[in-house]
Specification:
This protein is 39% helix and 19% strand. By secondary structure, it is α/β, with parallel strands linked by helices. Strand 1, helix 1 and strand 2 form a beta-alpha-beta unit. The model has no long low-confidence stretch (mean pLDDT 89).
């Protein structure tokens, strides 16, 4: 019997209020995980991850947008690669974007710390698969 670790905390890093509302509603409605944190830009998310006081609140999964103000998804990943060795747990990162540009998809797939590239909108079935892959 395989034991799958539960996903306790999801982090959504995205400035699209409608998408954030929808993904939060879907996660809560389907009771996919008990804790959800959100950031409107990559800088705030990186600062949260870097803060040792947040060690017990680190997410299991990050849904990361590409285009955001202050720090976009690419800059977030550059900074994430630098701080990853100091993090107290493994975090699964999904790049979630409305972009279907082949260059964005190739660039994301070339980054080892990105588990997968997902095109918005994210359906319940797709979300369920992402949770299963991350567990």
């Amino acid at each position: 019997m395989t034991i799958v670790k539960p996903i306790n905390t999801v982090c959504v890093v995205d400035d699209d209020e409608i998408y954030v509302y929808g993904i939060k509603k879907l996660i809560n409605l389907k009771q996919l995980c008990p804790n959800l944190i959100e950031f409107r830009n990559g800088k705030d998310a990186i600062e949260f991850l870097m803060n040792p006081e947040n060690n017990d609140q680190l997410p299991d999964v990050i849904f990361l947008d590409i285009t955001m103000p202050i720090m976009d998804g690419w800059d977030f990943m550059d900074n994430y690669a630098k701080i990853k060795p100091q993090l107290s747990k493994k975090i699964t990162v999904y790049m979630v974007s409305s972009s279907i540009n082949d260059e964005d998809i190739k660039r994301a797939k070339a980054i080892a710390d990105i588990t997968d590239y997902v095109v918005k909108p994210v359906s319940y079935d797709k979300l369920l698969k992402l949770f299963q892959l991350a567990a």
